[in-house]
Amino acid sequence: MADNPSLMAEAEPIDEKHVLLKVSCPRQLAEPQRVHLCLVLDTSSSMREPATGHHAGQSVAYNVRRIDLIKFAAIALVKCLSVGDILSVVTFDFEADVVLESVVMDEDRDAVCGVIESIDAEGTTELKKGLAQGLYCLESIQEPNVHSVCAILTDGSPTPPDPTFPDHYAAADDNTLLSSYTQVLDAARARKPDLHLAVNVLAFGYDFTPTDSILLHNIAQYGGGTFVN
Q: What is the pTM of this model?
């Protein structure tokens, strides 16, 4: 075939380049971060009361107790944990009690859920004792790559911590009560500076006073977590 000058003119020499790529992966992948969840459950006597809501501007009482709602929510959180995560459960009324401590989760959650289901309510609302005990449980795990989550489930305001301050509802912007909780959190961080902590507050009640909401919101905010009402 005869050479075509027009085709020969359009041809361009190929500029070849050789590139050497080196691809490597880390010798050891980072270990996945586990969660240590400590449920701090309000078991005060007010938790025996019916759960309430609002309908057409009216307060409505439902045929379920607040303690049952909290136990249902706690069990739902337990079922969200992954295998290998850690669970502790603390209840508070007159005092704070450790119900479960540092239980490593496997596929079978029936025994753990059964313990939560057996919890009942009585007494006052010593939230500060519950928070302090929950933080001690979280501090007990010394392993790296563990994210500590404290979830407080309550229906309202804690019992005043001091007889000389009997009515903390009087001033919604009073920081006197909040300071006793921030001291508990500061003490935990001082004892274990590497504690990766988030304190979340889940409130189960539609009849909160403004002070209730402000206090619980501020506890969660100072604890690096979230307040949900």
A: 0.79
4 band by pLDDT with thresholds 50, 70 and 90 = low
Q: Which residues contact 204 (CB under 8 A, 6 or more apart)?
A: 51, 66, 69, 70, 73, 153, 154, 155
3-state class percentages of the chain: helix first, strand second, coil last, to nearest 5: 35, 25, 40
Task: Tell me how long the chain is.
Answer: 229
Query: Is residue 90 within 8 Å of 128, Cβ to Cβ?
Result: no
Residues sharing a CB contact under 8 Å with residue 29, sequence separation 6 or more, in sequence order: none
pLDDT tens, residue by residue, 192-213: 998 899 999 998 866 665 556 8
Task: Give the angle 186-145-37 at the CA atoms, nearest 5°.
Answer: 60
**What's the CA gap between 227 and 229, in Å, rounded?**
7
| 36, 146 Cβ separation under 8 angstroms | yes
Residue 186 DSSP SS3:
helix
DSSP 16: -
The helix/strand/coil state of 60 is strand
CB burial string 34-64: b at 16+ within 10 A, e below: bbbbbbbbbbbebbeeebeeeeeeeeeeeee
- Of the ranges 58-62, 99-103, 166-170, the best mean pLDDT one: 99-103
Better-scored residue on pLDDT, 35 or 206: 35
